[in-house]
């Protein structure tokens, strides 16, 4: 049975907007992360070549995650159709991070507006991996805004994309892929080989969502009276400069829309790095820019869902 009925995806999306990630409910991503670590431990004991072990880890974790989602829905549906729909709604709801991303960035914005830079540093440290102890107000706002831009794909539009295509099982499979990249996709001695497959699959999974998101960011920018034309200039100029084959697209689009420049110097564990400069305007990030980025992210998410549902309905009507 196809559980992707027309109402459950908008309902799950609305629940995320209303409630975010309730801490009293066990989150599937936590279970996926736990299973990924267990799988890594077991595979490393086999003495297989690390790249092969990493490929097997991807197959096992993504397969088990998608299979578990399907099985949960099927078992619940045997009890009652409504139970199956409820499980599907929950799995979809847990795949989105619109409210959570906005709340985290909003906490940084509020702290900056209150003049509490130390609190702002603490809040932004929950969003980014860079060192935050020495960030000034502009650096804090930049880190928060960049995080909203980057996560607008893997936390918002990409889960929507796979939910539209494959329902709750597709959304959970994507979250498994994204979690594996977050867990193993590091270019260090431990994960350079073992995490190769995780990083490559995440790049592949985000390829189309990242580029489609630019279009919806542009539409959202028009609605929000931001810089429409600078979006495409910024993407054309800077998207391919980013270390990630996908993250440069939403980040460049946000930078163009907001009239700011992303990138520059930052440090990770005391090691200074220089990220490419993205954007076509020399504007700096502020608390107001964080507020605008949150609104842009929310509008992009709503438009992505609306466009996707519209296309689904047209295809079904034509069929």
UniProtKB/TrEMBL annotation:
<keyword id="KW-1003">Cell membrane</keyword>
<dbReference type="GO" id="GO:0015420">
    <property type="term" value="F:ABC-type vitamin B12 transporter activity"/>
</dbReference>
<keyword id="KW-1133">Transmembrane helix</keyword>
<dbReference type="Pfam" id="PF03186">
    <property type="entry name" value="CobD_Cbib"/>
</dbReference>
<dbReference type="GO" id="GO:0048472">
    <property type="term" value="F:threonine-phosphate decarboxylase activity"/>
</dbReference>
<comment type="pathway">
    <text>Cofactor biosynthesis; adenosylcobalamin biosynthesis.</text>
</comment>
<feature type="transmembrane region" description="Helical">
    <location>
        <begin position="52"/>
        <end position="75"/>
    </location>
</feature>
<dbReference type="GO" id="GO:0005886">
    <property type="term" value="C:plasma membrane"/>
</dbReference>
<dbReference type="InterPro" id="IPR004485">
    <property type="entry name" value="Cobalamin_biosynth_CobD/CbiB"/>
</dbReference>
<feature type="transmembrane region" description="Helical">
    <location>
        <begin position="208"/>
        <end position="228"/>
    </location>
</feature>
<keyword id="KW-0169">Cobalamin biosynthesis</keyword>
<protein>
    <recommendedName>
        <fullName>Cobalamin biosynthesis protein CobD</fullName>
    </recommendedName>
</protein>
<feature type="transmembrane region" description="Helical">
    <location>
        <begin position="294"/>
        <end position="315"/>
    </location>
</feature>
<keyword id="KW-0472">Membrane</keyword>
<feature type="transmembrane region" description="Helical">
    <location>
        <begin position="82"/>
        <end position="102"/>
    </location>
</feature>
<comment type="similarity">
    <text>Belongs to the CobD/CbiB family.</text>
</comment>
<keyword id="KW-0812">Transmembrane</keyword>
<comment type="function">
    <text>Converts cobyric acid to cobinamide by the addition of aminopropanol on the F carboxylic group.</text>
</comment>
<dbReference type="GO" id="GO:0009236">
    <property type="term" value="P:cobalamin biosynthetic process"/>
</dbReference>
């Amino acid at each position: 049975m196809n559980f992707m009925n027309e109402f459950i995806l908008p309902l799950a999306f609305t629940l995320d907007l209303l409630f975010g990630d309730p801490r009293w409910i066990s989150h599937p991503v936590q279970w996926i992360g736990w299973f990924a670590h267990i799988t890594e431990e077991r595979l490393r004991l086999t003495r297989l070549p690390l790249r092969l072990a990493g490929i097997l880890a991807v197959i096992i974790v993504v397969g088990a995650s998608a299979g578990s989602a399907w099985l949960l829905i099927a078992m619940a549906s045997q009890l009652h159709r409504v139970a199956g729909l409820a499980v599907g709604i929950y799995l979809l709801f847990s795949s989105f991070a619109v409210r959570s991303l906005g709340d985290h960035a909003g906490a940084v914005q509020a702290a900056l507006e209150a003049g509490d830079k130390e609190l702002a540093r603490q809040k932004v440290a929950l969003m980014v991996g860079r060192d935050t102890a020495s960030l000034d107000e502009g650096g804090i706002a930049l880190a928060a805004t960049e995080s909203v831009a980057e996560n607008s794909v893997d936390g918002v539009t990409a889960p929507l994309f796979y939910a539209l295509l494959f329902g709750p099982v597709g959304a959970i499979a994507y979250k498994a892929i994204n979690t594996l990249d977050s867990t193993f996709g590091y270019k260090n001695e431990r994960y350079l080989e073992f995490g190769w497959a995780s990083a490559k699959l995440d790049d592949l999974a985000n390829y189309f969502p990242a580029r489609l998101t630019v279009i919806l960011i542009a539409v959202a920018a028009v609605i929000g009276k931001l810089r429409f034309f600078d979006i495409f200039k910024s993407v054309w100029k800077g998207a391919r400069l980013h270390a990630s084959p996908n993250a440069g697209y939403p980040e460049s689009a946000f930078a163009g829309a907001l009239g700011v420049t992303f990138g520059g110097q930052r440090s990770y564990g005391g090691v200074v790095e220089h990220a490419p400069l993205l954007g076509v305007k020399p504007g700096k990030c502020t608390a107001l820019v964080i507020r605008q980025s949150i609104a842009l992210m929310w509008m992009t998410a709503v438009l992505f869902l609306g466009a996707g549902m519209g296309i689904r309905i047209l295809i079904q009507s034509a069929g």
